Amino acid sequence: MPAFPSIAHVAITVTDLDRSTRWYIALFGAQPVLDEDETTGGFHHTVFEPIRREVGAS
After folding, report:
1. Which of 47, 39, 53 is nearest to 4 (CA)?
2. Label partner for 49 (CA 20 to 30 A): which of 28, 29, 30, 42?
């Protein structure tokens, strides 16, 4: 199988930050590694450490 480039960053817009953060904590089984307001553009960043696994691995 040809190599698939790794994904380094995914940005998702949500309508309910608190609810979405709780959902991603449950999904990933981990707390965010960064949770802060971005000062120049009016955004909030909640960042999770990526789970590293190979496609097709069991």
Report:
1. 53
2. 42
- Note the helical H segments in the chain: 17-28
Count, residues in the chain: 58
- What values do phi and psi take at 9, rounded to 5? -160, 135
SS3 state at 34: strand
Amino acid, single-letter form, for residue 27: L
CB-based burial label for 57 (10 Å; 0-12, 13-18, 19+): exposed
Give the global pTM. Answer: 0.63
**Tokens 């608190």 -> residue:** 18
Q: Which three-class secondary structure state does DSSP give residue 47?
A: strand
What pLDDT digit, counting tens, does each position of 2-50 carry? 777 777 778 888 889 899 999 988 988 888 988 888 888 778 888 888 6
